[in-house]
Each structure stands twice: as structure tokens, then as C-alpha cells.
Design goal:
mainly alpha, about 0% strand, about 140 residues, flat
Length: about 140
């Protein structure tokens, strides 16, 4: 009886742990919409959005031009903002890494700093020689 109870408790704890790790699903429409717009130009995004609203409400030619212009402006601004955010995140990560490396360097003894510097220079030399080998192979 104890074995059966132990097995039941074990299985229930595993299923609870598995359930707790599942991420909640987003609205399928949002995921689909985002995946359709990934890696598209501002013009493609504006055209697609204009076509969508045109199907819904039957725009006139002038309305279509105006709506397209608005969507194009918005898409360009969005793409620009995402690019800036990406660059900022990359710079922030680089600065954080450099700061952490500097702090670690301060904690090391002079001998440890020399060993680390030697390994780093060897790593850079081997990377350069590997690049040269790869370049020679392609030529």
C-alpha cells in the first residue's frame, strides 16, 4: 500500500512540475500576425495592412492611398525603433560584459592576470590564423 501511495505521489508531483513549466499560450491571431510581419520591409507591411482594411471596408482609391501612407509611416517608425532597441541592447550587453571582466580582473593576482592575458592573446592569434586558413580555402 505504501508503495502504491508513493508511486501516486511521485507521478502527481511530476505532472504538477511539468504543468508549472508550460508557458501560457498567446492569442493565436497575435502570433500569426507577428510571424507574417517578421523580416518584411515597411512597404510590404503597409501594403498588407492596407489590403486587409480594404477587404473589410472597401476603401476608395484616395482612401487607399492615404491609409497606405499612414501605415507606411507607422511601419518605418516601428522598424527604426526596433533597430535602435536592438543596437542599444547589444551595446548594453557589451558594456556589462566589459564591466564584469574588469571587476574580475581586479580580483586576480598579477600572475593570474598574466596567464589570462597570455591565453587571450593566443586565442586571438589562433582565431586570426583560422580566418586566414578559411580565406585561403575560399580563394
Amino acid at each position: 500500500m505504501k508503495k502504491i501511495l508513493s508511486i501516486v505521489l511521485l507521478l502527481s508531483s511530476i505532472s504538477i512540475a511539468a504543468f508549472a513549466q508550460q508557458t501560457p499560450k498567446k492569442d493565436g491571431r497575435t502570433d500569426r500576425k507577428r510571424s507574417e510581419l517578421v523580416d518584411k520591409t515597411a512597404e510590404e507591411i503597409a501594403k498588407k495592412r492596407t489590403e486587409h482594411i480594404d477587404k473589410e471596408v472597401k476603401l476608395t482609391e484616395q482612401q487607399r492611398k492615404d491609409v497606405y501612407a499612414l501605415y507606411l509611416k507607422e511601419a518605418k517608425a516601428t522598424i527604426e525603433a526596433e533597430q535602435k532597441a536592438s543596437q542599444t541592447n547589444t551595446e548594453r550587453k557589451g558594456n556589462a560584459k566589459k564591466g564584469a571582466n574588469d571587476e574580475v580582473h581586479k580580483l586576480l593576482t598579477p600572475e593570474q592576470q598574466k596567464v589570462l592575458a597570455d591565453k587571450k592573446s593566443k586565442s586571438h592569434k589562433s582565431a586570426k590564423s583560422q580566418d586566414a586558413k578559411n580565406k585561403a580555402k575560399t580563394n
